[in-house]
Amino acid sequence: MKFKTPFIDEGLSVAVEILSGVMAGANFSTKIRKWTPTDINQRANLGQLFAAIDPCYFAPNFKANLADLSSRLRKCQPIDPKKPVLVPGDMEAAAMKTVDEAGGIKYLPDQLKACEELARRLKR
């Protein structure tokens, strides 16, 4: 059984809808067109919200607290013991480590050939 705190998710959804739709002068809620073949020629008029927030301004201990939370989450028992619990950024960090250990990004011969051909066509 899944327990859900009432209104938390809904409140966040409404806040995003207000900031990205209503305040942007764009369509919102059910006013956004459907993504079906019959509606494809209608203007979507979707609003966008981009926010740059420095969490340290609101919580001076943010970095330490985030590291603590991440550590606690990683220690949770995974559903599949072969797949540990990951937090955002873990997969990217593993990919960066692989690239660093390999000495760079490894390209397949076909990829390099395609790039060389494109460079010749563009005369670069």
Automatic annotation (TrEMBL):
One annotated GO molecular function: oxidoreductase activity
SUPFAM superfamilies attached to this UniProt entry: L-sulfolactate dehydrogenase-like (SSF89733)
InterPro entries per the UniProt record, alphabetical: Mal/L-sulf/L-lact_DH-like_ah, Mal/L-sulf/L-lact_DH-like_NADP, Mal/L-sulfo/L-lacto_DH-like_sf, Malate/L-lactate_DH-like
Keywords for this protein: Oxidoreductase
Protein family according to the UniProt entry: Belongs to the LDH2/MDH2 oxidoreductase family.
Official protein name in the record: Uncharacterized protein
Lineage: Eukaryota, Metazoa, Ecdysozoa, Arthropoda, Hexapoda
